[in-house]
Structures are given as structure tokens and as C-alpha cells.
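agent> call fold_tool(seq_1)
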Amino acid sequence: MHRRAFTLIELLITIALIAILIAILLPALSGAKEAANVSYCLANLGTLSKTAAMYMDDNGRKVQPWYLGLKNYDPGWVSEYIYGGFQHSVPNPDPRIGATADTYMIPTRFRPYNKYIAPGVDGKNPIRSYICPSDKTWRTPIVGESYDDPTQSPDAYSSWQVNGNSYAINWYWLQGPPWWGDESWYQFLPSFSLAGEQMLKDKVGGEAAKFVMFTEQAMNFFMYDARPQSGQFGVSLIPDLGPGWHKKWSRYSVGYLDGHSEHRYVDTRYSDGEGFDVWPTHRYFAR
């Protein structure tokens, strides 16, 4: 008894149907994977925000930067990654920074958040709580530099590989910058530390739920020159909105001062908006 074989046309139709089904399913599978990555990222940010609150409580909510008293360390520049994170093995590819970066030099065990998140960890082993699975960009803007769209040149590394952390802390309000000496680069920015301690005491309730403590690195890049929506201090030198790590335009994962985290739309040209604020309250600082 002979069995009938597929004809060439039937085989081509079958292959075409399989290809169509794959084309339909792949975006759904990719979307499901990215949704899982967002959840992982938000869990990390929630942990970081709660850790920051514990750190402030344990240290009397003082604004003095911890690393200024670190022996045998004189950072050439200070970044927004060293309150936590880990000592990575890749020197910063920016030739102006290279191996002098604080994230490359400061040992993991000295970073204050790590005693809560990864007690006893040392060396250059990655700490998962500081890694976003969708992390795609390492570049961090240097204060005062001209705008250079990071999307125009693909990155060879992720932020956690170069910075030891996928998440940037909103550090300006926490530590200064009076110790930089010259604040002319931000003429509208008074020294945050002059009122930082009082601001932290009063940042409760609705204020804490809006105040952004941590951002994914992609948002940090596009927002470093954000200005208030009032226009009182001009407009941002960065005119563009950028892509977040999770495949949605200008949507980012952020952690707030009250400990919760969100994946949301942020217009990075502005320092404030519906449901978020990256500057201290009007009460303490001119905006």
C-alpha cells in the first residue's frame, strides 16, 4: 500500500503557515519577556528605595556624603552609582574618565547600601539587586557637557558592566553640591545641602510618594538637564525624549522616596510632572 506524499505546493503552504504563526507569536512572546523584565526591575527599585530610607534613618538623615571620609580614596569625579552597586571589571570607555571612575575604584564592601542589600559581599562579583535585565546603555552625562544623543551610537556595554549599577540615585538633593566649589553650571540651583536635612524630615505622605529617588540609567541620561515646567529657569538643553530600556518611548522604571516603584511615562525635559518630582519642594528651594 502506497502512502501519498506532500506535493511541493502543499509543503510550501505549510511552511508559509508556520512562518505566519511564528510572526504572530514572536511579538507576544517578546512582550511577555519584557513585562517580566519590568517586574524584576521594579522589584529592584523598590528594594533600593526602602534601603535608602533605612540608610537615612540609621545615619540621622544627614546629608554629608559618606565617601568624603573614606580613607585612601580621592575620587577624580563622583557619580550617581556609588551609594550601592559593585566594583565592576570594565573601565569606563569614556577617555576622560577611564579607570579613574569612582565605580571602578571604590570596593564593593565600602558602599553604604550594600550592608543592607548584600552584607559581606566583596570583590567584583555582580549583585543582582543592582542589575536590570533590560539594561542597554552605559553612558552617563558629565555635568556641563554638550548634548549627545546616546541612541545615535550603540553601546558595547550595559550600565551595570561600566557603572556597577543599572540604577542612578537622585543624588543632587542628597549631598550638595557645595563641595564642588563652583556652581555656575547650574545658576538656578541653590546648594541642596543647605536645607537637605530639613527637607528629608518633611518629605512624608504625598510628597514622598512623588519624589523620585532612583531611575534606570536611560532616564538618568535624558533627564540630567531637566527644568521645571513653569519655565522659570528656561528650557532643557536636551530637546528630545528618549527610549527607555523596556521598548516603550519615554517610559521608565523609577523608585520613590516612600519606597514604592512604578513603570511610567516621564517627560524628561521637565523636573516635575503628573505624579513625579525630581527636585526638592518649593518650600526650601527656588525652582
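agent> call fold_tool(seq_2)
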Amino acid sequence: MPHYHHPLGIHGTATRKARPRVQLTDGHADKLKLPVIDEHSPDLTKVVFPNGRVNYVLMARRESECQAFRSLHTYMVAKQPYLDEFLTKVGKKRLLKDDLGGGRYIASGFGTMGKNVSPVVRPPNQPALRLCLKHSEHLELARIAGGIFSKIAVCIDKHCDNVYGDNQKLMKLNPNMAWPPLKFQESECNWMSSQFIVRRWGPALAEAEWPLEKEIVAAHTDQGDLDCTMFNCYTSSGGNLGKGGPVKGTDLAVFEKETGGSGFRVKTCIEDTVVIVVMNSKRQLHSCIKSRDSNVEDGAAWSTRIIPYVTLGVHNWMTRHPYDIPFTDIP
């Protein structure tokens, strides 16, 4: 089918080259006959692919039958203003470019150090808080996100078979590497990730605070991440009624394997709803879908997504250093 490549997938960034990645459109979704999970779907959808892989889509609503879903929704409504305030305050100064899917985002958590780092600066090859944020900014964002992670963990523990148990096996390797730190995850459940990103998208965002992007996230897999199941969290803010709303180009396509195969489509921007997609981003091709019609959008709304992961380098360090503490002494 005719297709376009994301510009970052063609040119890469200042420090790393990238291979071209396709931007999916409504035309592709129609041709592939992707089943849609949207506001008419139940709170829990279990997707079983032909190859046996299982994904889940959770819809946390104000009036969900499950108390865990209602608790997540209530918590997110309370914390979203603080998250928006933080993202607006940090703004363009701390944004990174994504040469995998394309776009700009804020990253927080532990990265692995290169061998060329002087021991005078910090221990070589020891994970450290990334320098894209100040230490105080890492902590502020982690405090906001910590409760969100734990609320999502409760939902996954209740509804997603062995996903939570597998995540806790990672936690046992070295709980000091959890980001957000466990002290910020105040719940009976917690979630192991070593980093997470936050990305925004939508016409209501001010250009002075967040770059308005024309190109959606392209089809990609996250090869630098650990082969494991994680969640993607999506919320919609603003909107004509103040409860969020549809934002063009934010539907998510997820496929069963790296090369495609069977897939499904999720509407991630739903009014007054927290959407959680539980998947393996290393093994599953995924992408946003470029909308055909402009009337699908609420011009006063925007999308926020939180995506946690564990990098391969950090995981390897965790297995060798089960009790060690990462390097956090940054400005």
C-alpha cells in the first residue's frame, strides 16, 4: 500500500541514525480490518493472538464495576493537573527526540553509563539518573507518577493473569532500580520499571510550552528494552467539557509480532477514561494511526501517555548487582 515514513525515521537525530519507519493511516487499518477497542468496549478486553501471545486493554472509568478501575480513575483525575503543570513548567528545555517512533518526550529514570565516562564523574557502567532532567525534576515527576503506577499495578494484578507476577520477578532482581522508587508507590501493589517517558500530543497545547507535531508515532518495536510485558497509560485532558476528548492521530495499532501479523486498534483518547494497554513493545510492532477525518478531533483536548520500560543494559546490571544502589548524584 502507499505509505509515508516519519521524518525522524529517515534522518535520525544528531547522535544516532535510524532506519525509515512507516506511518500507519486509516487506510492501512481498513485494509488490515483491525478490530477496534473504544468507548463502547467493556472495561477489560483480553486479546489472544494466533501465536498465543496475550494482550489486555483496560478502561478505567468513573463508574466502572471494578473498584480497582474506579480507584485508578479517581487518582488520575486528582493527579492529572499536577502532571500537566510539571510538563508545562519543564517544557521544551528537557524534551528528547524519539528516533524510533518519532516525536518528542520527557524521560525519567535510570540509564546505563558508557565505558567512556570518567570514574571521576561517576562509576563507569553503573546505572545513573539520566541527565535530561535535574535531580529535583526527576523526583517531582516520580512523586506524581508513583501512585499512578501502583494503581495500575493493582488493576493488572486483578485482571491480567500472570503479568503482575512476572513483573514482580523483575522487582526481586534489585528493587533499588525501580523508577518511580517504591517509596512513591503507595499501594498494596507496585510496578517494576527502570525508566518511563511522558509524551503529549494535541491541538490545544501551546507551542511555547510543548512543540506541536505534525507527524504521528510511526510503526516500530523497542529493541533496546527488555523482552517483557509492560503497560502504556493514556489519558485525555482539556476538551470542550473539561473531561478530555478525541485527539486526531492518537489511536494505537498493536500487532502480534515484530513483523506485523494479526493486530487490533485502540482508541486511546476517550472522554473521562484512563486507557491502559498491556503489551510487549520489544516483540510487538506498534504505531499510532493517522486519522483520515478532521471531525474526529476535539480542538480543545490533548493526549498524555506514560510509557514505562526496563532497558536491557539496566536489566543486565541488576542481575549482576542484586543489592547495589544506582548513581543518583546529579545536579
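agent> summarizing second result for user.
Residues 135-159 form the longest helix (25 residues). The chain has six helices and 15 strands.
agent> awaiting next instruction.
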